[in-house]
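Model: Ready when you are.
Researcher: Fold this.
Model:
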Amino acid sequence: MLDALKFFLFVILLLVTIMLNQHVTSKRSAELDLELLWQIQDTKGVYVIQNQTVPSGVYTALEQSMVIGSLLEEYNDVNTSWVGETDWTYRTNLSCLAEDYKYVLLTFHGVDTFASVSLGEQLLGTTENMFVRYRYDVKQLCDGDTHELRLQFRSPVVEARERAKDRALPIVPTCPPDVYHGQCHVNLIRKMQASFAWDWGLSAPSMGIWKPIRLEYYSSALIRDLTVVISELEVNGSERWSIAVRVYLETGLASAQVHGLLTFKIIGVPFLNEADQTLAVTNKTNEQGELLVEHGLTVARNAVERWWPNGYGKQTLYSLYVRWEDEAVNGVKLPNPDTMISEKVIRIGFRTVQLSQERATDGLMFYFKVNDVPIFAKGSNWIPSSVLPERSYDSNYVKFLLYAARDAHMNMLRVWGGGLYESDHFYRLADELGLLIWHDLMFACSMYPSEPDFLRTVQEEVRQNVRRIQHHPSVAVWATNNENEVALRQNWYKTNANYTAYYTQYVELYVRTVLPTVEANDPWRTVLLSSPSNGDQSLKERFIATNPQDPRYGDVHYYNYFLDGWNAAQYRGGRFVSEYGFQSFPAYTSWPEARSYRQAELSQLINHRQHSPLGNAPILTMIELNLPLPRDPSADGYWPELIYLSQLSQAMIVKTETEVYRARRVEHGTMGALYWQLNDVWIAPSWSSIEYGGTFKLLHVWLRDIFAPEHLVAFVNERRQLEVVAVRDTLQPDVQLWDVELRIHRYGSFRLVERIRQERIRVPANTVELVSTWDVYGHLAKQGLHPADHLVLLYAYLHPADGLPSQPAPQPIAENFALLDKLKNIRQEQRVQPTVSISVVSAVCSEQSNLTSVSLEVSVSAPALFVYLQLTPENSTLKQCQFSRNGFLQFQPVRTVQLTCVDPGCRNKIQARDITVRTVNELLVR
């Protein structure tokens, strides 16, 4: 019976293989995804992995076949390093029929990274840049016979090492710090720079076919890309939108004459001039088979709605349809006319984005105006969603992360320059969610070569990716690199001894190659030379500013790990803070090894994954400055306590810094706060607000308040005054009247000490308004009250409209708190340990959405400080569980909190015992 079953399974597998590797022919499509079954093996044939599909990567294939364990568990980042130093071969069988098609091309949209591509006995070509699309003419080989399609991959680690040999001027840094456990010379190859390790990520020098392979066949021209430049104009009193469309046509890989008609439509929107709908084309493609056709469209301004960033209005999108039809289609009766027709649809948004750098009294401003409205950019920095490129395009996980950004009131993400040009899905979601994109090109934290071959592949990389991404309304600005200007100026990699040579390379790469290539393919947007940079001022200083971190110009990156980050007085900010942040540890239950490891073993693993050269010292220092620090690493509960405190400290630091930046919008001209970083690639100490897999750290829960469009900011400033600032990002109404209430509480009692109220505070739209600066310490001293025993809770309410009948007690539109002393300084008589109990009020699970929602009541017998709720490890089948509130102050006996989780099949029933609770109180009374 068992043998019969095995034979049956074999037959099924054989049939599936035949079906997936059958002749690829079609008369109705110019593109077919080659969803073939591949065999992957190392060059010695020790490891042979069958029946793999693309997108694919060697690490993923080895994991799935159980040759290696998960790359993300234990020490597998080091244990599997041999994978990246080994050559691998991908092979499959391909049979196709060219018949009477004029062009048949095999197109690889992403090969990672160095491969020789062969079909049968013919070498088609080689790849060297994972960001570039490669096309090969296979018409002569599409003869109906079966040929082996083979990609022979060379180790990127070995290739990078070879390229580093015999260089007169080393490309620095040559290797990452030892603590990264990474590989060397990644800056010599065009591959995701973080794949050789970073301070937040593991080394995973991937290889594979990380994007689709398509067989393209057609007989006239193929529309490869559409780009647009959309601008407002007024003609004879008529307000309209102008849409300059660029159509990039391809005719195989060689020059050819094209005669045909382009048709343009914006679905549901009429053109002002009906003649704009069509354009006759008679021209010749260049020697690469490419032709650019430009065409102008106009629509009435009132015929469309504007696209707005998140929080400012709707994200209205329109479909632009373009069709190419060869003139032969209507001239003669053809057996297969569809092969001479090509169509493409993109979604566009009607909006204007301007990066304003007008003169200020002390430098230049630096802020974004969308539809002529100044925008305070609130958001984060995006790294790839996975360290393995083939997994980074996981549409569900990308959607989860971008929705989490949107729901935290972010309106901008910075796609960081050491990662990837993201998937089309990523940019479509950013368009839909109103997330503006600050987009680095993929160069980061390094010097780079400037040899002709390197510049050639870079130019092609930039050209292809800018054209692909350009039409998305969410993209706001390009920057050619991350931190390379400041690295060169500040001698990060000991470049001063050969400064002129490295400067020349910098100018050759960014000023003479990347910048003009971006501008040639996207005349719609500003291109910055670096981040951080002084913007226009850097250009005046021959591209490398004397101080690229000057807060009076451009953007700055600000990190300070040993000054007290809880102290608002240390933050000044700049015009635009595009990186800042602080590390924390992932939740104890997120470490898959936590249940089997002893304390010392877990400490060793966490230290192994801590890639910051400073180690855990900044985290521990900041906790020790402000909180009771656990002292005995061998004690039971050490790591759960330390992890909790690290997340609380991170949340407080980023909250404090962000709120200062929002409050200084007028005083310092600060108009952007993008903290580092949104997401992670593994469970490890990092700066992220969302752990790998989707668990929110305390910081991300707090961001809903920190970035709220109407917010009340309060902090102790450098003059030891309690500064209270009303913040509004909303546009309507023009003015709101707020009532602000300050409540002084004693830590050990629910009873209110004092209530201070200010009414009818005038808060204009889209700006900040100082509510008060108050000598809270002098006020307490007059009453004989000690600051260490007290904190201030703040509430803002909309002032009731005059003349209306009395309404129920108003709900606050904003809440906040201000600590008056360090928590570790709370005096003994105010150190109370409340009894905290959790009860489940209701639980509902939708089998349609697989979402379970649980309403919880948190009851405390005394004020509880920074209540931290967490599911126990036994609920590991639940995914992406989020509490509506966490790490909160509870100065009322009962509080309601919502818990939502992804629960496939609705199999779990969450009970009170499934939730653990921590508070700072329990550490204070110890």
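Researcher: Now this one.
Model:
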Amino acid sequence: MSHKLHGKKKRIWLLAWQGSVASLDQRLFYADIGNLGQLSVIALPLAHRPLFPGFYMPINVKDPKLLSALSESRKRQAPYAGAFLIKDETGTDPSLASTSETEVIHELKGKELYDRLHEVGTLAQITRIEGEQVILIGHRRLRITEMVSENPLVVKVDHLKDKPYKKDDDVIKATTSEVISTLKDVLKTSTLWRDHVNTYTQHIGDFNCPRLADFGAAICGANKNECQQVLEELDVKNRLRLTLELLKKEMEISKLQASIAKNMEEKISAEQKKYYLNEQLKAIKKELGLETDDKTALSAKFRERLEANKEKCPPHVMQVIEEEFTKLQLLEASSSEFNVTRNYLDWLTALPWGNYSDENFDVHHANTILDEDHYGLSDVKERILEFIAVGKLRGSSQGKIICLSGPPGVGKTSIGRSIARALNRKFYRFSVGGLADVAEIKGHRRTYIGAMPGKMVQCLKNVGTANPLVLIDEIDKLGKGHGGDPASALLELLDPEQNANFLDHYLDVPIDLSKVLFVCTANVIETIPNPLLDRMEVISIAGYITDEKMHIARDYLEKTTREACGIKPEQVEVTDAALLALIENYCRESGVRNLQKQIEKIYRKIALKLVRQGLVPDEPSPIVASVVTTPENSYEKSENGSTGIVVDENLKVDDEAEDSSNKEPSKMPEPEVQISRIPGADNEDLVSQGKVESEKVQEILASKDIAKVIIDESNLSDFVGKPVFHAERIYDITPVGVVMGLAWTAMGGSTLYIETTLEEQGDGKGALHLTGQLGEVMKESAQIAHTVARALFLVKEPDNPFFTNTKLHLHVPAGATPKDGPSAGCTMITSMLSLAMKKHVKKDLAMTGEVTLTGKILPIGGVKEKTIAAKRSGVKTVLFPSANKRDYDELAENVKEGLNVHFVDDYSQIFDIAFSEDEITEK
């Protein structure tokens, strides 16, 4: 039968035979396939690339119904289907095909799938089906004409034939030759493409122009839309041109890839060559004795570093160091263990074994330093001086851990620095706020990559002495994470009984930390774990009153800020009234950090003002003083109406002008002074050959008022804005049902009002309604106060059913601020009784204290802060629990001045004072 078939039909028959076509009827069908009209075929969607005639393609079919239809088709005499490329969705990149897109294509069915198919595809023979994988081989081009059925998708197709072309056409011949030439160049770079050629020629036969175009497009790496364009092109000349473009692009990519590979190879070769030459150079220098090897040099370096403290180094540490030296010599320099040992020796030899700084236990010297650095805080300074005195008698200041507690900005960290300066110890600070990893304190094991010792070992290496002062900041904010509990790890570090043999995980040798002085800081001690707090001596820093803040601002903050801004004292004057207003209305918190920020804000604006007005020369000279003519806008009128000249304050005319406090000013040559015109001065008397004596200049300067910026209460808001705080006192005379209480906050003390009013009355409607964002403890205090007030009122007025028949509404103003604490109990009772009896409480009265159900007054905290808050609000009479008398007596006299304080232990005493008969009853 094969002798009867000729030409094209014969090749198609052979192809079908090699594709394992089973029956004779099928072979006959393919022999006559060119004579068929429209066919109905199952449509198979292709996700990534179109199928070209003569090429195999495996596809995955996940739809069981479609897979079954393909199997049935293969069993019948029509083992073929139509393979069509899927169109891209709008806005997607055709070069990117993800797995998720492939999954979406498998889910397309029926009409939706039909709309997404390209019209032109390939008639594909189903050669094999293995599970979900179907192997196809392309034969000829098809075009979809209409849809026959939806599930599985069956379409009618027309067979497409190439347009007639002339083989002898010069353009086709030239294009074909260029395609072949380009293919040869591309095939040299890839063995996989050469296998494509062998397979194609075995199954299809010799190349002609259409096959050549299809082959080139099929094996190139172009995107699917470009390949589909080649498949749809029936004009052989255009198809060859399109394929040539794709192959040229593929050739450029191959060249670029080869260039990159070559550059990388050259770079690696150069590095290898450099390494090889360096190794040769080291070997030559070693043979000539010009240089020792790395291990010998390292050992010499470490031994030299250790030599200074070798006699003081503990024997057990020296033994470990010698063992590590021996190990270092035996290890190869390229091994990982070598680097671990080198780093370990680096740390061991860098620590100050037995190297102590000489301490200064002079109490007078320490007192002077503390007074220089801090104003007030007499109780804190006294405690520090006691600590130093004990150290002087013992000869060592070990054995105590000081914990400075107080609100932010009161100077806890700077006090620690002052103690270090007073004792002549090195100072090291590290913060443990948020620390959640024990390794930060105890170090990592050396087996880990990037292992490091803990903070304490790093501290000793940095300071270079074994007895520094270590400030552990924010110890109340320790974290607790998956890395362990740092608070427990700090016990070994801080405990005087344990830290003489502190064991760091990295060093793994005991370190003596008994001579280290630890100072901790905390805002609140309640959050410090009890075992840790038990080892500390807490020194409380309550904060500063207004008078102390005034002194601090005047003597410390203002001076430091002025120098930092480069402003001379003669150029600025900040009045006491302005400072007082700044403290009262802007910086009411306990500390002075915010006060410092506001002063810096003022001086920055002053500096800008001076520069804008031309009061600062562009190029100041340290020797020549220039007096320049003052423009109208460069000086201001002083209070007496006179004007001042502008002088370069950075320039030295005479030492006495610079600092009048120097008794023996250093002698310097008489400066050459250049004088310009000065308003109101006789310039002819001043100028003599361009030179005048410095004394005359001083007389002129002294006779004129220097222009200065004056900050007072009236213009303070121009520099720092509107006041942040307003008067806490709302009422001059508190209405019925309103009583002033005293509260402690993290910002210091404050006053607050407890207000009670009648909400509803009726038989048996006695109840209590609370507002003001009160915490659980404060809500319980209100319930206790209600019960105590009812019991006391029943004794005072047995026949008055006020509490039984009245629903009360108790409110604590500033509803946006959360409030909690038991010390408002007595204030709440007084507020309720004031409303019940319709009596005002005593004028200028404030109180604080926790109340029990039996009316007993329990002690409270924050006595100093609450006393300061009472004074700030103009309170004259204050009620404290009797148990707090000792705390009040310890306060400074200037804090207690002007207050009439009563100490009570039962609410009946408060009742007698608050509702004394000499006060005005309801108006």
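Researcher: Key takeaway?
Model: The longest strand covers residues 133-149.
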